[in-house]
Inverse folding.
């Protein structure tokens, strides 16, 4: 994030802000992700490939999750 701040000139990516975001993630988001993961409702998506490939991963995950929900 510090590199992003340097490259993009982002003033909001300070070490203090990054530490606060990570604290918030671990306190608030991570437990929620684990709650959904325990119910097989989390699909890992690799966001590094081209947009089209990421979209295909998302579509496949949604199709899988939609098929798991009783009609």
């Amino acid at each position: 994030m510090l590199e992003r701040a340097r490259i993009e000139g982002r003033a909001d990516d300070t070490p203090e802000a990054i530490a606060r975001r990570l604290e918030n993630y671990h306190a608030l988001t991570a437990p929620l992700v684990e709650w959904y993961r325990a119910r097989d409702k989390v699909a890992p998506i690799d966001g590094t490939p081209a947009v089209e490939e990421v979209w295909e991963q998302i579509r496949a995950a949604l199709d899988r999750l939609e098929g798991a929900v009783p009609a």
